[in-house]
Structures are given as structure tokens and as C-alpha cells.
Amino acid sequence: MRRALLIAVPYLWLLALFLVPFLIVLKISLSDTALAIPPYLPTLDFTEGWAGIWGFLQELDFENFTFLTQDELYWRAYLSSVQIALISTVLTLLVGYPIAYGMASAPEHWRATLMMLVILPFWTSFLIRVYSWMGILSNEGLLNQLLQGLGLIDQPLIILNTNTAVYIGIVYTYLPFMILPIYAALEKMDAALLEAAEDLGCSRLTAFWLVTVPLSRQGIIAGCFLVFIPALGEFVIPSLLGGSGTLMIGKVLWEEFFNNRDWPVASAVAVILLLILIIPIILFQRNEQKQREREG
Amino acid sequence: MRRFTWFNATSLTLGFVFLYLPMVILVIYSFNASKLVTVWAGFSTRWYGELLGNQAFLDAAWVTLKVAVASSTLATVLGTMAAYVLVRSGRFAGRTLFSGMIYAPLVMPEVITGLSLLLLFIGIGLDRGVLTIILAHTTFAMCYVSVVVSSRLVSFDRSLEEAALDLGCTPFTAFRLVTLPIIAPAVVSGWLLAFTLSLDDLVIASFTAGPSATTLPIKIFSAVRLGVSPEINALSTLMIAIVTVGVITASLISKRASLAQQRDAQAAARAQ
Fold first, then answer.
1. Are A3 and B1 in contact (CB < 8 Å)?
2. Which residues contact A82 (CB under 8 A, 6 or more apart)?
3. What residue segments make up the domains of chain A, in order of their start?
4. Residue A240 half-sphere exposure toward CB, CA atoms < 13 A
5. CA separation, residue A232 to residues A56, A171, A291, B108, B203 (Å)
6. Percentage of residues in chain B with pLDDT exceeding 90?
7. Cβ–Cβ of A102/B200 closer than 8 Å?
8. Which is more confidently placed, B258 or B172?
9. N or C: which end of chain B has fewer CB within 10 A?
10. pLDDT for residue A206
11. What is the overall mean pLDDT for chain B?
């Protein structure tokens, strides 16, 4: 009895506030836009019994999804979201790997402090971390002041409100997600393997490519997914650092809902975004499971 | 990995400069006397004064705090229950769906979570306000809590619980006297995580907040959309300071608690 109650409370909570809302999105994505409250048709009417439910089901269709494939804006938004997320993931890897490598090579009594230093920004407000770049990257911002002061450039670089600023924002905010799994993989590595490779005639760089990188593969894969998955649906970074030319699907969904008040189309956009995300999520789960099996 | 080279030192230095410099600049410029945020015009605490006089910000901060305390506490209770179910309850009908619902919100884009909850609240005719934000934050934060707590539950020695049951404890008393003290550090860090997630959240709160309840992130977002402002710099500095002090205190406390627990375990081992 107690056990049933223990299971039921969190179960019902998640059913009511996670699964049901998601089914509502699915349902509205199949409805039609209407000038009504709520602004979509049909609405389900249980008072008519099965006939009402059947009539309701018959009115659902894939019109919104057809609309999404026809309007070029949505295609381009999905493609450019994937592209921006991919480029940022690679950049985050390039910035994060040397840091994780440095942490794993550091003397052991430093490591706890270094870990703390990587995690600390993660506890600070995401919004504030994104915002902190606005003052640096703007046309009269500190970066341009510095570069002009040094005489390196005459005209200010236009970075804020471009995709470059979005890349910087994503790398900056998601860097801890990349560093931690790579560090975890590198820390477990046996230093004797590198020595062996060098004794057998590898240069340090070759030893790095042939020994270190393959041994940290699991960490690299985990880090890349942990950056790519949230970056794909990102809203705050493109809307604060990106410009009018920055197309990301999270922003499109937001505008469709709040500015155009087109709920069915916003719901359809959400459903497709999830379908795109399912692939990397499954791959990520598989990678984690493989690692657990190897360790277990 | 024993050799610490100049290359390692450089990449660590550059890495941490990259991670911390933007925030340091933000803090410095919050003490700037000028309204122009990129021109330094001398030291002043003027913006902190204006911030304290800004009723809209104070109201938003109060709403945010209420939401964060309520939702993180609820999320900790529900998340700990969920973790216990996942780790201890064995098989039951719908277990796969349950664990799916625990892990899915962790990877769900915030825009989708927010949209779906808003559509639910409208569907059942619940007026949007503080309550709806609390419900929304509890739902996604409880999943994070249950992940943190279940990793602790997996690693602990079940025979301790069984011993308590053999000695005549009811399951609930055994949980209160044995399990809870052992998983307490994870429960506390789960609560802290839920609290910061709630303080931090812009997207889900924007969807689920009505016009009557504005949280601090919503207020900050609408202000910074128009550009950098010294008042926001001052506010950010305050938030960074609170978080830094909080995290350092929490980590010191948990370090002390784990040392004490180690001592107890060693003493128990010796007593045997």
C-alpha cells in the first residue's frame, strides 16, 4: 500500500505535467488555426460521447506540417540551427580539450580546485553569462576598444548580432559540459601507456594522436552530445547575441507563439524539433550505455 | 599524465581567463560612474542605489525567490521519491514509461517544455501566475533531483536498511533513521541544483508566467534586449556574489559532512 503510494505520487505528477502537456502539443499541431479562444480548432467535446471524439479525430490533419515544408523560412531555420549547433560543438571541443588535458596533467592536489573553478560558472545565471558578452562584443565594446587602441584595426569589427557572436556565446556557456566528461576520461588514463608509446619511438604528438585521443573518445563523444543537444534548441543566445540574420528554431518557435499567436504552427515546429533531437539523444544514450557496460 | 608542461599551463590559464574575464569585466563596470557602459568614468556605487530604489526589480526578485524556494522544496520531495522508486522498487507496471519521463525533461528543449505546459494550463483553465511557474519549475527540477539522489542511492550499502528492518523498524522509520541521513548530502545538493535552476530559468517562466507575476530573469531579459545597462550590471554582480558565496559555503559544509561520515564509518569498522 505504502509502496503503491510512493510510486503513484511522482508518477501521476509527471503524467499530468509532462506527458499530458506533450500530448496536447501533439494534438494542437494537428489542429487548425482559428480566430477563437483558444485560437485553434477543433476542441474536444466529451459531452457528445464517442461521436464527439470521432468527429474530433476526423478534423485533425497534417496541414501544419505541410505548411512547414512549404514555407522556406522553417526549412532554413532547422538547417541553420543544426549548422550553428554543429559548428559550436566543434569549436567547444577545440577550446575544451586542451583545458581538460591541462587539468588531467595538473598535480593531484590542484585538481579539486580546478574542478571547482570549471563548475562555478555553471552555477551562475545563464542569462548573465550570455549578457556579459554584449558589452564586450558590441561596436563600441571593450574588444573593439582594445584592438583599436593597439592599432590593429581602424574600423570596429562587427561581431555582436552576427552568427560569430552566437558561436562565442554557445562555446562560453556550454564549455563546462565539454570539459568535465573529457577530463573524467583523461584522468582515468594510465600514464605508463604514453611512456610506452614514446619508448617505442613515437613522437609526443604521435603518441597523443594514437594513445590519448582514442582513450578519451568516450569523453569526447559525451561532451559533444552534451553541447549539441541543448545548443540545437537554444533561445537566449541567438536572441541576445545573434542578429536578424541568425535563424534558430528555438527563436522561430518563440516568435510564432508570442508574436504571431499561431499556436498550431508553433506546436508543429516543436514536434519536428523533437523528432530531429531524438536521433542524437538515442546515440548519446547508447554511448553512455556502452561505457557503463565496459566499466561494469 | 604526470608531466605538467608549459603547454598545459598555458591552456589552463587561457581557459580560465576565458571563463572568468567576461564576468570580472561585468563586475568592474557595475561600479562605473558613467551611464555609457563601455566608457570608464570613475568609481561609483550609484547603480546599486538606483537598483535598490527600483520597485519593479524588487518585486520581481521577491517573486523569483518565492518560486525558487517553493519549487525546489517540492521538487526535492518528489525527486527523492522518484529516485527511491527507480532504484528500490524493482519491477512495476509502467516502469519504462516512468524512467522515460524522468530522463526526457533533462534533454527537452526549454521552449518545448514551456510551450507544452502553457497549453496545459490554458487547457484546464488555470490562471497563469506564481502557482503555474512553481508547478512548471517543480516538474523539470524534480528530474534533476532524482538523477542526483539516485546516483547516491545506487552506491550505498543496502544491508544497513535491511538491518534496521530486521531490528523492527517500519519501512518509513528505517528510511528516516538510516537511508535519509546517508543520502542527505545528495538531497541537499539536489535542492541547491533545483533552486539555482529555478532562479535561472527564463524560457519556461516566460511561457508559464502571467502578466501578474514577473520573475527576475524575465525582467532582466526584457531590459537587456535593448542593450547593455549599468543597472543590470549591478544586479548581475549581486547575483554572482550570492552564488559564489553560496556555492563555496555549500562545498565546505559537504566536505566537512563527508569527513565526519568517513570518521564514523572508520569508527564503526574498528568497533566490529
1. no
2. A232, A276
3. 68-295
4. 27
5. 34, 13, 25, 11, 15
6. 43
7. no
8. B172
9. C
10. 87
11. 88
Cell digits for A105?
Answer: 596533467
Residues of A in contact with B89 (CB under 8 A): 3, 6-7
Residue B261 scores a pLDDT above 80 = no
- How confident is the model over A167-172, as a mean pLDDT? 96
**For chain A, what percent of residues have pLDDT higher than 90?**
42
Beta strand extents in chain B (DSSP E only) = none
Q: Which helix H or strand E contains A250, and what residues bound it? A: helix A249-258
Hey, what CATH topology would domain A68-295 get? MetI-like fold (1.10.3720)
Residue from the list A22, A124, A142 with its beta carbon closest to the beta carbon of B240:
A124
Quick check: B99 and B85 in contact, CB under 8 A? no
Q: Which position has the grid cell 609526443?
A: A204
Residue ranges of domains in chain B: 44-156+186-260
Question: pLDDT, tens digit, for every residue of B209-244?
Answer: 988 889 999 999 998 888 778 889 999 999 889 888
Residue B38 and residue A117: Cβ atoms within 8 Å? no
Please tell me the distance from the alpha carbon of residue B13 to that of residue A94, in angstroms, as a whole number.
15
Check CB contact under 8 Å for A105 and B2.
yes
Is the domain spanning B44-156+186-260 CATH 1.10.3720.10? The answer is yes
**Which H or E run includes B169?**
none
Tell me which chain A residues have a C-beta less than 8 angstroms from the C-beta of B142.
10, 13-14
Residues 6+ apart with CB under 8 A from A206: A197
Say whether A28 and B38 touch across the interface (CB within 8 A): no
**Chain segment A123-163, per-residue pLDDT in tens:** 888 999 999 999 899 888 889 888 888 888 888 888 899 99
Interface contacts (A, B; CB < 8 Å)? 224
Q: Do A17 and B78 count as a contact with CB atoms less than 8 A apart?
A: no
What is the distance between the alpha carbons of residues B23 and A95, in angstroms, rounded to a whole number?
Answer: 18
Sign of CA dihedral B140, B142, B148, B154: negative
- B chain contacts of residue A262, beta-carbon cutoff 8 Å: none
> Residues of B with CB below 8 A from A105's CB?
1-5, 8
